Amino acid sequence: MTGPGDLPEAATRRLESGSFSSGLTVPDFGACLQMGLRPVGLVQGFCAMQWSWYGAGSPYMRGTSPYGTSDGGQGAYSQSWRCPHGLVSAEHRAWGQNYEQTWVESAWLQGFGSAYGRLIEEAKEVGAHGIIGVTDTSHNLADMNVTEFHMLGTAVVVEDAPAPPGGDPWSTYLAGQRLAKLIEAGFMPISVIAGIASVRVWAYCMTEYLMEGRVGTYGWGGATSTQEIEQVSEGHLAARALAREHVRRQLGSDMLHGVSITTAEREVGSGDQVLECTLRGTRVRRFKGFDPMPTPRPTVRLS
């Protein structure tokens, strides 16, 4: 049993000071302090979204622009393929289509926005100027059109700085040296940005055959040992182009930094697929010219 005077002076000082939580690594925490950012708490946001299903020919798929329009239009992507064999049988897949699932994208964007809004609210409650090292995850619940969103980040305050304009903290996926170099180059993080494109590949006969490894079926001419699966290739290209377009609409005149892009594939039938391309990055804005940061001070001494 120890009394109040039995603890070392450093331990007493730590216990008397205010506590905080952080999602930063030790190097990121050190770089954070070097930039004058003081962590005040680990904040999070969560949301679960459900959407209804629409099939081929739905009015939600109509549009004239192949990949949307940069001026804010909502033209949906769709592309069709026809059977080269002629009439074969009633079961023959004589027609196929790739189409953008705008209802999935809308549900995803709403869920991401709700989780992000709750992340911001928690940061405001602790008086934060910004949120660094943001991570966001989303996953579908099995056999249901439900997606869960979870966001985490470390809320920080800028030492001796006034409250952020408008009251909302800024946010970034960056932390540590990557964030330090961004600020050193004269750019300020504004917010994390993410967008998704969902493309359904409704396979026609050739896509089905080629996905199964078959060629030359039903006397189709020109078969070779190698063959591009055009419908799937076009679906991937469209998903990436649509994701870039969706994010570009959110940027305005700002720039995107630290971009990551991932594509998930889900088989839903014979040759049928759902392609979901997600693009993330930090929205940044220039606020000064290049300004080298001072040399870091050592935080540990060996002597």
Commentary on this structure:
- The chain is of the alpha+beta class.
- It has a single domain (20-53, 79-286), classed as Translation Initiation Factor IF3 (2-Layer Sandwich).
- Helix content is 26%, strand content 31%.
- It is built from six helices and nine strands, in the order ααβββαβββαβααββ.
- Strands 2-3-7-9-8 form a five-stranded antiparallel β-sheet.
- A hairpin with a 5-residue loop joins strand 4 and strand 5.
- The longest helix is centred in the middle third of the chain and has 24 residues, at 102-125.
- It is elongated, with a radius of gyration of 26 Å.
- The relative contact order is 0.17.
Which CATH top level class fits?
Answer: Alpha Beta
| Helix amount | 25-40%
Could you state the CATH homologous superfamily? Hypothetical protein apc22750. Chain B
Spatial sequence of strands, sheet with the most strands: 2-3-7-9-8
Unreliable segments (pLDDT under 50, ≥5 consecutive)? 60-65, 69-74
Total number of β-strand segments?
9
Number of domains: 1
Q: Tell me the structural class.
A: alpha+beta
Which CATH architecture would you pick?
Answer: 2-Layer Sandwich
The CATH topology turns out to be Translation Initiation Factor IF3
Shape: elongated
The major beta sheet can be summarized as: 5 strands, antiparallel
Tell me the distance between the termini: 33 Å
Percent range for β-strand residues: 25-35%
The whole-number mean of residue pLDDT values reads: 82
- Count of helical stretches: 6
Which value, in Å, is the CA radius of gyration? 26 Å
Helix-strand string: HHEEEHEEEHEHHEE
